[in-house]
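Self-study notes.
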Amino acid sequence: MAMKIRLARGGSKKRPHYSIVAADSRSPRDGRFIEKLGTYDPLLAKDNENRVKLDLDRAKYWLDQGAQATDRVARFLEAAGVSEKKTRANLKQGEPGKAAVARAKEKADKAAKAAEAPAAE
């Protein structure tokens, strides 16, 4: 059975509240889980100690049993010192989109024409 440590969403519309659970990877996001490991409240301030509550001993147990943490839960575990920090690379984050590239090219062409026009006179 493939195990995941992941978030299960609760709360009402536009007021999310998540449970951190150990669940079978085939079960639905908010469906059946094996054990509740903690909670996550994204509406609280980042420096609030109640934002993420996690039972670290049980999380270590499930990781030792072969459970895979999702990206968000892995970040919580890294912050708590349970797992080592992974290197992440968002290679496309700094690149401009197609429209921005086209606008920059047009602007450069206009600037080149404007530089040539006074030189011709």
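Second protein, same conventions, sequence then structure:
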Amino acid sequence: MRTRSQSRRRRQQQTLPVVVENFDLEEPIVDQNIVAMADNRTMAQMLQAPIEGYEDAIVVPPINANNFELKQPLINLVQSNKFTGRQDPHNHLRFFNKVTSTFRHPEVPNTSIKLLLFPFSLDGEARDWLDKEPPRSILTWDDLVSKFINQFFPPSKTTYLRNKITNFFQEPNETFNEAWERFKGLLHQCPRHGFSELHQLDTFYNSLNSNDQDALDSAAGGNFLVDKNAQEGFSDYESKSKSSYSSSRAKIQELSTNALLSKSSPSNNSSICNNKYPLLSR
């Protein structure tokens, strides 16, 4: 039979820490390769600026064509319309594509020319953006376009413009021509809206006032949307827009003419004369 003191000693023995022999905690484990590398460098070498990390973000494929060079007039033309980050990036790409399409080399892909020239078309905030992109992170023209658009035309802006297109309506005092031009402007601002041509046709028709809808239906001999494909519908919109514009211009001209005739009428001249020479009216 165990006594109480024997049981206490047994529990103390069971809870004693395990001691590992020949292990000195005061000596740190050091990688000998690191020590050797540090010992072999001088203080000047350790303080020297790194020589890596200065590569451009855009990687231009090797060009092995003979007598190839970017002419200064082409660079000047690209630089004549620099993108600073405040303009519409889609318009900038349209302009850039138009300029670069004028320069062709039989042995050099047009995409390589674009990759070479694109940095020259940026300034300010846009140039800072490109400089901050990781080195060698843009390998193709499609990569560059995708990153450029996402930076300066984020998905939130696309969503905002899509909602404006979906909820478009003709203003109370807005002519057909003015509404149509405004609607086309929204589509132009948002190339990635994703709406089919038939959807665009339907959206604009349903945004019009009843008078303009009736005029379209009458010209179509029924319901305008039923028998029209997208191209026919857009053609009719353009025709009515031109007619609306001409009619609006004619009304403005008529009002201007009437205003001039009113100012030069004899009654007005008499009134002016009487006011200028009050004694003659007596």
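Instructor comment on the second fold: The CA atoms of residues 172 and 209 lie 8 Å apart.
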